[in-house]
Specification:
This protein has about 180 residues and is an all-alpha fold. It has one domain (about 15-170): de novo design (two linked rop proteins) (Up-down Bundle), CATH 1.20.1440. Helix content is about 80%, strand content about 0%. The chain starts with a helix and ends in a 7-residue tail after the last helix.
């Protein structure tokens, strides 16, 4: 009788470990899926930028530095790997695009150009999708990291080498600053 109790306890412990392992694998795969969704939107964003630059080039001949900075930032963003590096590079790209949009304000004929307006709308839509994808990814990372850190699943995570995932954070100084209001 006592042997059956010991065997039953061992079976329950093994099943619990299997359940925790499978849960960790599932959460890790959700993080990978969420990252791929961000990657799709970032690629879309990167593909739009050359068209935007070409459209703007004809109008803003004196803004060569701004266009070169966007091209450089885009290249850096495309080469970034990992959530932290991608977040930093994408933040720099967002800053460069923001500067371009400020420059565009000085060119009314460009602001009225249908190609530019269509690209601007597409870029704005893509920025929203990147934001939603980033939120979904960070939620998946939070669930995974919580599972990796909490007892008893942290024991299984350490046994099988599950490591915490990185959050995707855009690091732009202007996003962190409070807007200044003056009257």
């Amino acid at each position: 009788m006592g042997l059956w109790i010991v065997i039953g306890v061992i079976v329950l412990v093994v099943l619990a470990y299997i359940g925790m392992y499978n849960s960790l694998v599932s959460l890790r795969n959700q993080v990978k899926n969420a990252w791929s969704q961000i990657d799709v939107q970032l690629k879309r964003r990167h593909d739009l930028i050359p068209n935007l630059i070409e459209t703007v080039k004809g109008y803003v001949k004196h803004e060569r530095d701004t266009l070169e900075n966007i091209t450089k930032a885009r290249t850096n963003a495309m080469q970034a790997s990992g959530a932290a590096a991608a977040g930093k590079a994408e933040g720099e790209l967002s800053g460069a695009i923001s500067k371009l949009m400020l420059v565009v304000e000085n060119y009314p004929e460009l602001k009225a150009n249908q190609n530019f307006l269509a690209l601007q709308e597409e870029l704005s839509s893509t920025e929203n999708k990147v934001g939603f994808s980033r939120q979904f990814y960070n939620d998946a990372v939070l669930r995974f990291n919580t599972k990796v850190e909490t007892f008893p699943s942290n024991i299984v995570a350490n046994m099988f080498g599950f490591k915490q995932a990185e959050f995707f954070e855009i690091q732009v100084a202007t996003e962190r600053e409070a807007p200044k209001v003056q009257f």
